[in-house]
Structures
1.
Amino acid sequence: MTQLLNADQTAARLPWRALVDEIARLLKDGSVEVPPRLVQALPGGGSLFVMPALDSRVAITKLITFTPANAGTGRPAIQGDVVVFDVATGQRRLVLDGPTVTARRTAAVSAFAAQRLAPDTQGPLLVVGAGVQGKAHLEAFAEVLNTREVVIASRGAASAQALALHAQSLGVQARVVQDANAAIADCSLTVTCTPASGVVLDALPRKDAFISAVGAFTPQMVELSPGLCQHFAAQGTVFVDTVDALHEAGDLLQAGLDVSRFATLADVVRQDIKKPAGPVLFKSCGWAGWDLAAARVATTQQFRTDRN
């Protein structure tokens, strides 16, 4: 019988460390296939995403809507499901909450990239944007990298204070700042988790900086200034999550950079690329392979539950 999981149940099936470890395994798995995702524009400015992926054991499709106009309404910007099938039998095994999968796998990818590439993983961590992704990244970095100090910058004072209180409940010291550009000099780790409707960072980073930019996933979206992206390309190192960044990484594309010359996470794992000297920019655009990694973890957790 198919299990239909709500947001809390989906999160419980996706422990942070297990998800990060599965991402590493998936990048070495030659059976993984990820067709291009279909993005259908909707009236009113939203988009419908259809994202399939499969390996030798599991096939998934993520079906979600992205509705930027929902910002500030109490309705989530991302809604939908991830449907998980057994390849051998064709049976539908799980239906996972799509926004929860998106939040957790995105944050886990950032944490994995920081593990492998950040010059200094000690922090503090600067979180720009205090929404769903900001919360997920805080939790992932606290669990996976043992981050113990966070600085929060957000346009919404109430959401920033709520995230600071959540950080404190996890045993993480937290403070709220007004200016992310002023705070970046004090933080070795930064994640930008905004709606990507405009530049939120343009200050030059410190030499041991790691930035994971996750908000912009279309050519029109942007969080980092062109000058900041160009600085990383000239004075540091830029990595992207997948080759799809060639046509999705708005920050890099608007900076006029040749995205094809930047290594992907698959390159990092398969070529055993070591941490580079100087500042590192990791540009994340999203990929159904990350959702497949989440589905693999969730089905493993289901198997363990069924056995007990």
Note: The first strand starts at residue 3 and ends at 4.
2.
Amino acid sequence: MEMGKLIADNQIQLEDIPQIDLYMDQVIQLFENTFGSTTRNEEEKVLTKTMINNYAKGKLFFPVKNKKYSKEHLILIAFIYQLKGALSINDIKSLLNGVNTRTAEGKMDLDHFYQLYLDLTKLNVDAFVNDLENQASRAAEEAKELNEDQPAELEKVLLATSLVHMSNLYRKAAERIVDDVKNEAD
């Protein structure tokens, strides 16, 4: 399997975010245009009106004005989109609560914070590519020990299970960080 096919990492860049407030349909279109290629199939939706309404009702971002979403809302929705694959909605709310509050009060430069996140994601992709190649090599070596008719399939199973294990380790670490953030806020 080609390694490039395994990497599905798109990000909304700051320059992609309009300087004007957007209506919900425009927000959805921006996210579809950016993340549509990362979905597993055409039925999978990147973002829906229901999702955005649920995030708003759950207070995952500060209230919108006149049914329009500001640049700050779009950044927060981008964070939510990235976090929802690994964390519960309650964990996301706890994690972003301070960011929301500081942003709504004008005490935080959310653009700068988001750019720091984007910088980290670039480093993460490089580290991921290296780790993925190492994991694939190890899985191939382990699969050679099997005397089976379909070693390519079993190699992929070993690689997938190894990657899921790594994902679980990272998710558990992130959950512990969320718990620390919650405890510090209390």
Note: The mean pLDDT is 91.
3.
Amino acid sequence: MNQGATIHAEQSVTIGSHVHVGDGVALCDTDFHEVDPGEGVHVAPVVIGDGVWLARSVTVLPGAVVGEGTVVAAGSVVRGEPAPWVVAAGAPARPVRDVRTRGRRR
């Protein structure tokens, strides 16, 4: 866990083993406030799988599940469930290639 990383857990944020979290990463299981009156605040658990690498300034939104071995590129926004063992990039983060070496990183 690097400097400036934040975890906002209204309900649940689960982080697996051997996870790398870069500077300025935000893990949020809540939107904090409603956008449209009467719609309520969106809250959903966040799950970060084993061996994940969240690079600098990644934002993980409510309900996201980051699969085992996934690498999320700097500045990306994760929503939904990117496939395991991929490099995901963008806003929203989408797979750009497979991770060549599966298994525990050293």
Note: Residues 6-32+40-95 form a domain with the UDP N-Acetylglucosamine Acyltransferase; domain 1 fold (CATH 2.160.10.10).
